[in-house]
Amino acid sequence: MTHRIAILGASGYTGAELVRLIATHPDMTITALSADRKAGMAMAEVFPFLRHLDLPRLCKIDEIDFSQVDLCFCALPHGTTQEVISALPRNLKIVDLSADFRLRDAAAYEKWYGAPHKALDLQAEAVYGLTEFYRSEIASARLVAGTGCNAATGQFALRPLIAAGVIDLDDILIDLKAGVSGAGRTPKEMLLHAELSGGTHTYSAGGKHRHLGEFDQEFSKIAGRPVMVQFTPHLLPMNRGILATVYVKGDAKTIHQTLESAYASEPFLQVLPFGQLPSTRDIVGSNYCHLGVIGDRIPGRAVVVSVLDNLNKGSSGQALQNANLMLGLPETMGLTLAPIFP
Amino acid sequence: MTHRIAILGASGYTGAELVRLIATHPDMTITALSADRKAGMAMAEVFPFLRHLDLPRLCKIDEIDFSQVDLCFCALPHGTTQEVISALPRNLKIVDLSADFRLRDAAAYEKWYGAPHKALDLQAEAVYGLTEFYRSEIASARLVAGTGCNAATGQFALRPLIAAGVIDLDDILIDLKAGVSGAGRTPKEMLLHAELSGGTHTYSAGGKHRHLGEFDQEFSKIAGRPVMVQFTPHLLPMNRGILATVYVKGDAKTIHQTLESAYASEPFLQVLPFGQLPSTRDIVGSNYCHLGVIGDRIPGRAVVVSVLDNLNKGSSGQALQNANLMLGLPETMGLTLAPIFP
Amino acid sequence: MTHRIAILGASGYTGAELVRLIATHPDMTITALSADRKAGMAMAEVFPFLRHLDLPRLCKIDEIDFSQVDLCFCALPHGTTQEVISALPRNLKIVDLSADFRLRDAAAYEKWYGAPHKALDLQAEAVYGLTEFYRSEIASARLVAGTGCNAATGQFALRPLIAAGVIDLDDILIDLKAGVSGAGRTPKEMLLHAELSGGTHTYSAGGKHRHLGEFDQEFSKIAGRPVMVQFTPHLLPMNRGILATVYVKGDAKTIHQTLESAYASEPFLQVLPFGQLPSTRDIVGSNYCHLGVIGDRIPGRAVVVSVLDNLNKGSSGQALQNANLMLGLPETMGLTLAPIFP
Amino acid sequence: MTHRIAILGASGYTGAELVRLIATHPDMTITALSADRKAGMAMAEVFPFLRHLDLPRLCKIDEIDFSQVDLCFCALPHGTTQEVISALPRNLKIVDLSADFRLRDAAAYEKWYGAPHKALDLQAEAVYGLTEFYRSEIASARLVAGTGCNAATGQFALRPLIAAGVIDLDDILIDLKAGVSGAGRTPKEMLLHAELSGGTHTYSAGGKHRHLGEFDQEFSKIAGRPVMVQFTPHLLPMNRGILATVYVKGDAKTIHQTLESAYASEPFLQVLPFGQLPSTRDIVGSNYCHLGVIGDRIPGRAVVVSVLDNLNKGSSGQALQNANLMLGLPETMGLTLAPIFP
């Protein structure tokens, strides 16, 4: 039996990535695609790379008959999302890719996103969508909040280490390198090819990046006490991929073993042999996350490197993985595409 | 029933692309991978993006038991290929990706490749592997010669036009733009990132590119008289993709209709609406070829633009499409992955 | 004695390139920089790469005292430019980089730019700014109209050939490859890094590109009869550089000799040895144009390749070269910076 | 009076960058260029971007009459360099760009470079070439050892802070992002465009990068006690530029003031206003280094970001700056070219 899928916000990169993935999913059919400002257009006009697919035309959200939808992906901007989801049927299964339901705490949301939350009941209901760590909650959830792509990259490196108590919780530093597709398709001067190609710079440095709200929430919850990490993101001249270089204090081999044990049966989290570090080139277009650990020459320090595709494992792939769980399908269905290289 | 597949030359880009594609093919299993200089290594060491797959170790060719192989892809350099295939069992189904068996004529081979052919019997036996035009021959062939990636791009634009007699055969010009992965993985100064990124130049200009041998052979055969096209390739700072801008003299709308009719039922050849021209971005990682036609302001002139992924539809995807036919499988099996964008 | 320079439209790429070049010019000082929407900002805020320079703040045009300006560069959009220059003092020397004064014919302007010209007297007064071919007119001009960057690239390849009558005037084809900085700094979806990097496509194909107005005007004037070229531009994933592949019918060696003779004493136009073709990599950041000629395998056909930096020789370098002439300075002053590679 | 300059190793990127810079230097003339394997070739064949210059042909080192050379730049690989310089006249002024004379200590050299030093007398004589900190020694030196490009980037961020005692010496972490031209022009698989573009990875992680030898030597000398920094370099898909993200413990404003004071009169070291961080895009092609400081949300932690062009300020620009001092010329002569953007 095929599940009927709606995607709200299909004219952005994460929306298109969902369509790409679901196109090869054996048990899902896309029955509605919304994009308010492009309603009426064919998806092939907005994303010509999808022209070989037989897809519904883009429509406005209120043109969708949600009684005929089994699960809805919502790939809209934060803020807007709260209002849209509040207006959807309360029994509709939803995987949200925005930031609106990631934070459990209303005050934390307001602090990081600069406005009070307008759908506190939904915020309370939502399950944090980091699949590998919230499987059972997700399987029974109605509303799942996809994680930030940077937040996912850092958490895959750190969660088992914090849980196992093998690193110093007061000295965790994440230096992150991100491709540009995470910044979306809305035209901005700083995202032009002429501005970005051939160079790099930091952004939201100094502890201002909103994904810190997720790190704080999750790491403190695992540790059972407040944990604050230092986090400096950089924008790189590449389209897809995030590499997090995570600096920790602890024994490198113990750290490696901890990750290996934690992820031994995870289909998408691949821990490299000790001393090898991964490249973003090796996960592009896929739902895989590669992790590596090396010790530093300074005793007691280790470096964990985590890479994933921000549009896939970092958002749309993760969303599909969660949707599989919510629909009672095998978790990996439609997600085992190999990365593409070169 | 799964078919047992060997890939010779698995340490190059087309070999790796074959592995990537076959990984999602429901009726094929890779049972042998050869790479002489890297024999003994795991594929994950040579191509870490494939580390999630369970693959045989790289071996030397003579370590393969070909009695346990149903079909063999050969992705070795031209010249070497002749000798290797000559030594393989004569009943083994082979899809060759090199240039060694593309030209029917021994003199033409010697002219373009600078050495006499050493396996004339195989040359005579081989079928030219442009799937959409040699389906029945390929289905019953033992040895299929994959086309040049540039040669495929140009032929998809021109074959129906030459066959239908709707263009001037004496004034065909192909200005081609190619990504760098077609040049292979062997280190050369001119292929370094520092040399290539951010610029463009011609190569093999003036009628020296070897794929002209294929154009001459095929176009003359279709026309029933000698046809010589002008062909200037350019190298672009992109990894995958070929765009052929084909200049012809004829009526643009007739040309468009001719392509539309010719490809109406082709799953992988997509003709855009009249006046729209395709981008290489929209076919990366896929077996699709997009074609567009526009008339020029000068009456009687038209431009046909054809784009495909050199590693996929231009070589490994085409090879798999041919293998499907040779094994009696549905032609599109394992090949309907959507392109990846951005 | 230093000449006082104003630059209108200093917040765009050609404006910034003018600042970069004039910074090393021994006889010019920038005394005013305008950018209406960024008036009040320091140039270092708009273009941090210029932060080491001591520059005037950006201002509105009407804040400039033009009685204290010896020469004004105008790097504003077409349309706007007509009105701005109409309002400037009629004795002010002006080098305009827009399209507004390139075409001598009012009807041609309206045809290509879609609106009637609003400053016909200035249009009549302006001199076409292709320095190497209009030196004496430029030296005595008050208003010089910089050429289109694509138009310059094509003309350097073709003007001497048309003048010498060594090519067929009815079969000239320009297939052009352009970097993205020519499209400017205004944010547009199609100019985003995520959209452009790693691919290529045509634009304004079919005879719609506005620079055709310049080709028509100039080539017809040289030939003494109408000449219409075919012209297909492509956008490439590189920031700077244009490569024009010009297909002509004529004797390749004669063509090469014609270019060599024509440019023998030109400091910026470098003709490569016969059979060698240039790369855009070798002119980035400079005022040099490299040209090469090769014969095709089809007798009587030749390919001329011309490369230049669209922001430099294609616009701001050309503008400075013209300004030198207008101010009685050595033509090459401030323009002999080597290209940058890699 | 012009100084006669020889460049050994002119076929590499740093050699070519020296030629580019010296071409606009008013008091230097290149009289000899060596490149053993390319001896006899014109520089324009090896680096076509220099074709507009009138340069001596490449020759073998022993063909150079060093009695007619005032200063020699040596841009050869480490190891080889020791032997070459040992054989040069002992009164010849030399600026070496290799790693051979950077380390003062023979044991440190052997540790980091894996072989005993073969010219201990020269090692003892050489002056470390970080211009801004060794001006007087360089001015009177005969042999100056250019620094590592990564080592320079990190030192510009850290030296004044260590000297002023405003940071914790036991917790310094440098996460560095480097463009690919620093890896040179010798063909290697990992440096191919198809391998590198569109991705990032670490290299020499875990405390294995040789530039650590320079950090250890210099920082310990300044501090008067051993200082060991943690250092993780990453390779980025860009040709030029290094960005060092330096994590320190100390008061951010004090750190900013310390850098501002230290560099107040430095022509090439530009400290941005507090809280602003630099981009590699803004220094490409120039001798400028931009530095920025920001405080983290975690009290007592600061981030210093330092960017420079590895081929220019990181090697050839630095070398020319040192040569100016050694020849009694103004330090900035020939070095004030603006960066190029975009």
Structural class of chain A: alpha/beta
**Overall structural domain count of chain A:** 2
Largest sheet report of chain A: 7 strands, parallel
> What CATH architecture label of the largest domain in chain A applies?
3-Layer(aba) Sandwich
Structure described in brief:
4 copies of one chain form a homotetramer. The first copy, chain A, folds into 2 domains: 3-148 and 313-326, NAD(P)-binding Rossmann-like Domain (Rossmann fold, 3-Layer(aba) Sandwich), CATH 3.40.50; 150-309, 2-Layer Sandwich (Dihydrodipicolinate Reductase, domain 2), CATH 3.30.360.10. Chain A is an alpha/beta fold.
Can you characterise this structure?
Chains A, B, C, D: Pathway: Amino-acid biosynthesis; L-arginine biosynthesis; N(2)-acetyl-L-ornithine from L-glutamate: step 3/4. Chains A, B, C, D: Keywords: Amino-acid biosynthesis, Arginine biosynthesis, Cytoplasm, NADP, Oxidoreductase. Chains A, B, C, D: One of its GO terms (cellular component) is cytoplasm. Chains A, B, C, D: This is N-acetyl-gamma-glutamyl-phosphate reductase. Chains A, B, C, D: The active site is at residue 149. The structure is a homotetramer of 342-residue chains. By secondary structure, the first copy, chain A, is α/β, with parallel strands linked by helices. The first copy, chain A, folds into two domains: 3-148 and 313-326, Rossmann fold; 150-309, Dihydrodipicolinate Reductase, domain 2, CATH 3.30.360. Chain A is 29% helix and 20% strand. Chain A has eleven helices and 14 strands. The first copy, chain A, has helices at residues 13-22, 43-46, 80-86, 106-113, 120-125, 135-139, 149-164, 193-196, 212-223, 252-262, 312-326; strands at residues 3-8, 28-34, 58-59, 71-74, 93-96, 127-128, 143-145, 173-178, 201-202, 230-235, 242-249, 269-271, 289-295, 301-308. In chain A, the strands form two sheets. A seven-stranded parallel β-sheet of chain A has the order 3-2-1-4-5-7-6. In chain A, α1 (13-22) links the parallel β1 (3-8) and β2 (28-34). In chain A, α1 crosses α11, α7 (149-164) packs parallel to α9 and α7 (149-164) packs across α10. Chain A is globular and about 60 Å long. Chains in contact: A-B, A-C, A-D, B-C, B-D, C-D.
